Amino acid sequence: MVWDVAVIVGSLRKDSLTRKFVLAMAAIAPDTLKLRIVEIGALPMYNQDLEGNDPAVVVDFKTAIQKADAVLFATPEYNRSVPGALKNAIDIGSRPYGGSSWSAKPAAIVSVSPGALAAFGANHHLRQSLVFLNMPTMPQPEAYIGNVTQLLGADGRISNTDTAKFIQGFLTSFAAWIEANSVKTKAS
Ligand code: FNR
To answer: Which residues have CB under 8 Å from 150's CB, separation 6+?
Structure first.
């Protein structure tokens, strides 16, 4: 079974360390997971007045989430919480009321920071939203990636052996979590 995982990257910048780490994760993911980044940078700011009149970029975003079997959130930390762009994407996907694109999708979180605290605050603020969104979010293993500049090699891969092993275990656990919590059974 191969699970299609939408990856939401919380940073919009071109040289994002979070995005680099996600790409490095994808390179060592088990065969049972297909990680594909769903972009959030072109989404408009959520405005309830515009509901029901979604521009194509919003429709495409919601469709991409609905099609996915699961969601991996990769977030940096801004001021001890999630970046506004990530919260905006979450809000957009959550509406219209009763038609959330996120509901029941198994999820996991990896928080990434060049600092030592590993974006713990963002990781847990995000968990709070995912509880409300009815996304079964993998409790363990937790993934707090601190000092990330020391973990990525010039080739774009995870250069630290222990971190690479940890991420492989994290993704293997996520595949099992998706299997256990998926509302649909996949044929292949
Ligand atoms: C930060 N940064 C940061 N880091 C952290 O560990 N805790 C924090 O609360 C914050 N706050 C914060 C606010 C704002 C507005 C910015 C721009 C940055 C630093 C942040 O971790 C660093 O810039 C990362 O490199 C951002 O992730 P990407 O863009 O490299 O993926």
So the answer is: 160
